[in-house]
């Protein structure tokens, strides 16, 4: 092997040592620049999705209000469909919900027959049969959201309309309710977000006409942008991003887009490609220049230091060789050459004196070493005991704790910290504070800038929402504090407390209040109307009419009782107080009993059941009433969410532990984005805009709680248009002694 001189080794070593941090710094800088650009693109994408969700919620809220009004008119008798009665209903919606320029009732021939105010009476008789929404509604009687149009029903301004069919008592179409939306509230909703520098939003209807565009002339002229490449890609991909050259712009733009499925509208956020790449190119050029200059200067400096150290090291080697030969007394004046560093001369002097004293102090050193070892061992044991106690306390806490020293290095973190933020303990133990905050920031869907404010004062508190790797949100309360003693600061500490349970309890309270105000309003209003009608002293009602009103009141009271029962059940499930009384049961008997308990409306739908149960199917061990409750809920949903003749097929197979009971229907099905949340409380799927289904969103959550109380499970497999299959895993009966 070839040997090199000390100078060559030192020069090469200095160069390598200099290049490593420079390359690391350069790589980190490039990574940071790339990350910033990607983060900007992600922020633009998230802003687009939030914009889409906001527009979807706005349209859903107004469409739901119009559908409720149409359902009210459909439910009323012909005597309550006079122009005066309709005007009062339209006026009520106009007064209670902002955003409508006009609300009308249109007859089956497409002519306006009632309006919401006296000021619009001149529009009564206006022929709307050639309107886009009228033609679409007559072709398929369901809720229609029109494309952008201009007409007298919209005050001759660009507008969109919601049209909902109404029916006669014999289920025949009887016209529709037409609600014309203002564009100003939609513009205010769209423009309230901060889209960043040189970025702007666009909202198009299903025909490609701009509901909102920064160039207001496009909206005013009802210009269609349906041929734009981004519109074509959005209709095909539904959401995504890309670089496009728009006909309305003279430059390439980075566009993130999303289709709102409920109304087939398209929202996008656009930003010029030049602004996206400018910061990256400029920063990368500057970084490369600085890296080259730093490398040249470091190599020159390393060569100079290597040359100086080479001579002094040679002198020191010769001196130590003479000392090793036993020359402890006489000094060699040539041991250190002239011009050597002062520190090296001092080192030689002290080294010579040390050699003279080595033999004298050797015995004393051995004795002292023995005593020192004993004392160190004792002190080490005491520190280990104290450290073990402290570590046990910190590891036993339910809160996540991390301590940072003055060099911004993690010096301690308990396993709870690693668990919450999904960081392996070996990696967490050597992290820098900035790297730790970056990992935590990746789990924060918003308010990331608030994270670094935790280091702003001696004691700071904050609240954050953490997104776990499984997609579940945790609500965390963090307390930051200085670690100090006697005026000396040793670092900072952070204590993260999981407040998810408290937050869920508060959210459940809010959901309950909101649901109560919504679900009780309709039956109570109906009961009040029926009672006020019966109490009128200026009219004589026929007995059949009175009986009809009383039956309606009785049904509404039953609905309220069902709501209360659902809430009591979900409260028992949430508190763990759900109790069951299991007993050996035949599956066939449970199914037959559940079929008899179906609500009246399900029976009237002429539901067809196909029960395929083997005769040798084992007994199940379950609570009869609770298991019937689960099946009745599944049967009712199969009838309620069905656009054809309802057919329910029931099959079962058994394994060593469970009887797997499957309920398959031919309903409208459930899309994949709703399946995972289907069993959450208060969650409802608006799968058909033409159907008035009602419900609390608690039924399937109660079913899941009942199955878990039995030690079983419930799952669903579904596709839109192909029906749904619910699978129940029910414990089988294994004998009284084994079952206990």
UniProtKB/TrEMBL annotation:
- Establish whether keyword Phosphoprotein is in the entry: yes
* Boundaries of every PAS domain copy: 386-428
Residue ranges constituting the Histidine kinase domain according to the UniProt record: 515-734
Any Pfam family hit: HATPase_c
Its recorded reaction(s) are: ATP + protein L-histidine = ADP + protein N-phospho-L-histidine
Name assigned to this protein: histidine kinase
- Top EC class of this enzyme: transferase
Localization per Swiss-Prot or TrEMBL: Cell membrane
Q: Which UniProt keywords apply?
A: ATP-binding, Cell membrane, Kinase, Membrane, Nucleotide-binding, Phosphoprotein, Transferase, Transmembrane, Transmembrane helix, Two-component regulatory system
- Is Glycoprotein a UniProt keyword of this protein? no
Q: Which chain regions cross the lipid bilayer?
A: 284-306
Please state every residue range assigned to the domain named HAMP: 307-363
Q: How does it sit in the membrane?
A: Multi-pass membrane protein
């Amino acid at each position: 092997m070839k040997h090199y001189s000390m100078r060559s080794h030192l020069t090469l070593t200095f160069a390598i040592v200099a290049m490593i941090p420079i390359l690391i710094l350069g790589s980190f800088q490039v990574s940071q620049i790339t990350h910033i650009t990607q983060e900007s693109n992600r922020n633009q994408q998230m802003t687009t999705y939030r914009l889409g969700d906001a527009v979807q919620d706005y349209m859903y809220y107004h469409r739901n209000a119009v559908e409720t009004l149409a359902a009210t008119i459909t439910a009323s008798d012909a005597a309550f469909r006079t122009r005066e009665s309709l005007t009062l209903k339209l006026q009520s919606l106009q007064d209670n919900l902002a955003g409508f320029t006009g609300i009308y009732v249109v007859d089956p021939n497409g002519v306006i027959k009632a309006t919401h105010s006296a000021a619009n009476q001149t529009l009564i008789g206006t022929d709307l049969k050639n309107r886009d929404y009228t033609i679409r509604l007559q072709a398929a009687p369901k809720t229609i959201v029109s494309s952008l149009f201009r007409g007298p029903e919209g005050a001759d301004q660009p507008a969109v309309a919601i049209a909902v069919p109404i029916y006669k008592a014999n289920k025949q179409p009887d016209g529709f309710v037409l609600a014309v939306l203002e564009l100003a509230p939609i513009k205010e909703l769209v423009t309230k977000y901060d889209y960043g520098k040189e970025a702007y939003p666009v909202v198009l209807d299903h025909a490609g006409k701009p509901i909102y565009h920064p160039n207001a002339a496009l909206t005013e002229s009802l210009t269609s942008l349906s041929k734009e490449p981004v519109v074509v890609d959005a209709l095909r991909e539904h959401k995504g991003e890309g670089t496009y050259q728009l006909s309305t712009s003279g430059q390439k733009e980075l566009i993130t887009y999303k289709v709102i499925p409920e109304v087939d509208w398209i929202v996008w956020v656009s930003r010029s490609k030049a602004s996206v790449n400018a910061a990256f190119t400029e920063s990368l050029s500057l970084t490369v220049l600085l890296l080259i200059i730093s490398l040249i200067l470091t190599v020159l400096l390393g060569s100079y230091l290597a040359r100086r150290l080479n001579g002094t090291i040679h002198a020191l080697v010769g001196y130590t060789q003479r000392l090793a030969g036993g020359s402890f007394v006489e000094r060699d004046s040539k041991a250190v050459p002239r011009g050597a560093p002062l520190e090296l001369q001092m080192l030689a002097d002290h080294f010579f004196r040390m050699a003279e004293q080595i033999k004298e102090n050797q015995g004393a050193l051995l004795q002292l070493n023995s005593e020192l070892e004993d004392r160190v061992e004792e002190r080490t044991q005491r520190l280990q005991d104290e450290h073990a106690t402290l570590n046990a306390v910190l590891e036993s806490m339910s809160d996540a704790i991390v301590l940072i020293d003055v060099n911004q290095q993690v010096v301690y973190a308990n396993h709870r910290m690693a668990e919450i933020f999904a960081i392996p303990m070996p990696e967490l133990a050597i992290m820098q504070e900035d790297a730790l905050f970056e990992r935590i920031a990746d789990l924060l869907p918003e308010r990331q800038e608030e994270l670094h404010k935790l280091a702003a004062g001696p004691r700071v508190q904050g609240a954050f929402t953490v997104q776990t790797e499984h997609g579940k949100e945790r609500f965390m309360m963090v307390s930051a504090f200085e670690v100090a003693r006697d005026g000396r600061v040793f670092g900072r500490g952070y204590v993260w407390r999981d407040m998810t349970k408290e937050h869920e309890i508060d959210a459940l309270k809010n959901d309950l209040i909101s649901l109560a105000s919504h679900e009780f309003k309709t039956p109570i209003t109906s009961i009040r109307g029926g009672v006020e009608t019966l109490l009128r002293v200026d009219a004589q009602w026929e007995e059949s009419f009175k009986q009809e009103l009383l039956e309606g009141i009785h049904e509404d009271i039953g609905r309220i009782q069902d709501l209360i029962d659902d809430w009591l059940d979900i409260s028992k499930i949430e508190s763990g107080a759900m109790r069951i009384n299991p007993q050996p049961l035949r599956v066939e008997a449970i199914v037959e009993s559940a079929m008899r308990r179906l609500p009246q409306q399900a029976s009237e739908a002429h539901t067809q059941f196909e029960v395929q149960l083997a005769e040798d199917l084992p007994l199940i061990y379950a609570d009869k009433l609770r298991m019937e409750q689960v099946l009745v809920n599944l049967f009712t949903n199969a009838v309620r969410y069905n656009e054809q003749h309802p057919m329910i097929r029931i099959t079962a197979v058994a394994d060593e532990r469970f009887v797997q009971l499957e309920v398959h229907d031919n309903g409208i099905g459930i899309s994949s984005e709703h399946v995972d949340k289907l069993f959450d409380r208060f969650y409802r799927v608006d799968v058909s805009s033409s159907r008035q289904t009602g419900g609390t969103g608690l039924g399937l959550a109660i079913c899941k709680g009942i199955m878990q109380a039995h030690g079983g499970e419930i799952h669903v497999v579904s596709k839109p248009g192909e029906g749904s299959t619910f699978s129940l895993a029910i414990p089988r009966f294994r004998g009284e002694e084994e079952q206990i």
